[in-house]
Design a protein that fits this description.
The chain is about 25% helix and about 30% strand. The protein has about 400 residues and is α/β, with parallel strands linked by helices. Strand 6, helix 4 and strand 7 form a beta-alpha-beta unit.
Length: about 400
């Protein structure tokens, strides 16, 4: 859905990515508007908003589109956010070169004069980002964070204070709040603890006792989540797996398990998170001791940041394994799961299988029957169900 956002810098037509006319969720929220209004007030009071401007966590490109005249840099963990930014800039007739696009895996600018941060859902990701950005921040840097009230906690403010300097918040406006931080160059910052590693438990198939690597912001950084544990106990291990996709791979334990079970399998790890794909590759390498070649492959594994199975040739895959997310930031939605399922059906060869694990209440079997004409329960417990759909 495309909607027009009015800002002090003009009005812009904005949409999420991929654009879906049935999606009623906007590409911005009240915290984006609050932040842009505050920046306009600073400019009116003579506060320079020049030099190197960096926008972190801009969810759909609304901030950098509005601020394009400042030639900002955008840092995001999301492939979809980058694609939305490109599309929204083009929709507004803005030169794409006016915004520099960085991922969370790229080195940040060495000097930052204006730092704007949309507070992420993950406190770990915020910690990692602040620690990586801090060396470029100086005493005169304007630092402003933004988020909805329910996204900003005492722990959020403590991170800003511990890593950058004294921090305070604004009054709430339309359930949004701003964070103001005064950088302290003399502050002694802690060492960045990311990525984390931990050892997997026994009883979960080929990856039992193996090492997992989690970059900040990737789901379940400290231990294996119970849904993935259940999935690992029931995967179709064995020879001749063929071409396998770990779709929404997270830290890559599912795809790594399949690769260990069948060394001849070709495993594609794909996620829209740059942090996740980096984690998956590190997890796989910790297990396989492979080396990355020019095409980004490790042994028979490939690692790709992208929008699900977009770009994967039709009828080229034998097995797709996934645990679909059912949130988009703070919103509950099944749009991502639906795209994953439809993408899997297109990519699978006849006779190929889609295996899905999810909470029982999500009712994925209904969607699978609509798409594939079949759905079989592989295993279930009080909370989770594993479903299999076969492409006819």
């Amino acid at each position: 859905m495309t909607e027009r956002m009015a800002t002090p810098w003009g009005e812009y037509e904005l949409a999420r990515f991929p654009e879906d006319p049935r999606d009623r969720l906007r590409a911005w929220d009240a915290s984006d508007a609050y932040l842009l209004g505050h920046l306009a007030e600073l400019a009116e009071r003579g506060q320079p908003l020049d030099g190197t401007v960096v926008v972190v966590g801009d969810r759909w490109g609304a901030l950098v589109t509005a601020l394009h005249s400042l030639r900002p840099g955008q840092i995001t963990d999301s492939f979809l956010a980058q694609e939305a930014t490109r599309a929204n800039l083009a929709r507004g007739g803005v030169d794409a070169d006016s915004v520099r696009l960085f991922t969370t895996q790229d080195a940040p600018p060495g000097r930052i004069d204006v730092l704007l941060i949309r507070v992420p859902k993950s406190l770990a990701l915020l910690e990692d980002q602040l620690l990586r950005l801090a060396p470029g921040v100086h005493e005169g840097t304007v630092v402003v964070g933004a988020g909805m009230v329910k996204e900003i906690h005492t722990s959020t403010l403590r991170l800003f204070e511990r890593i950058l300097g004294p921090t305070r918040t604004s009054l709430a406006e339309k359930k949004a709040r701003l964070i103001f931080c005064e950088p302290d160059p003399a502050l002694t910052r802690p060492k960045n603890p990311w990525p984390h590693t931990y050892t997997l438990p026994d009883g979960i198939g080929p990856v039992s006792g193996r090492t997992v690597v989690n970059h900040a912001g990737v789901f379940c950084a400290e231990r294996l989540d119970i849904g993935t544990r259940f999935f690992l106990q029931h995967l179709p291990y064995g020879p001749e797996a063929g071409r396998v996709v770990d779709l929404g791979c997270g830290n890559g334990v599912v795809g790594t398990a399949m690769a260990l079970a069948d060394p001849e399998a070709e495993v594609l790890f794909v996620d829209e998170s740059y942090q996740a794909v980096a984690s998956a590759e590190a997890t796989y390498r910790a297990t396989s001791e492979g080396t990355v070649d020019a095409e980004g492959t490790v042994g028979k594994a490939e690692f790709r940041v992208g929008d699900g199975l977009t770009g994967v040739p039709p009828a080229s895959v034998d097995l797709v394994l996934t645990n679909p997310p059912f949130h988009s930031h703070q919103a509950t939605t099944d749009a991502t799961a639906w795209r994953m399922f439809t993408g899997a059906r297109r990519a699978l060869r006849p006779g190929g299988e889609l295996w899905v694990v999810g909470n029982r209440h999500l009712g994925y079997h209904v969607k699978l029957r609509r798409l594939f004409g079949n759905s079989q329960v592989v295993a279930s417990d009080a909370k989770f169900v594993i479903l299999k759909a076969v492409k006819r």
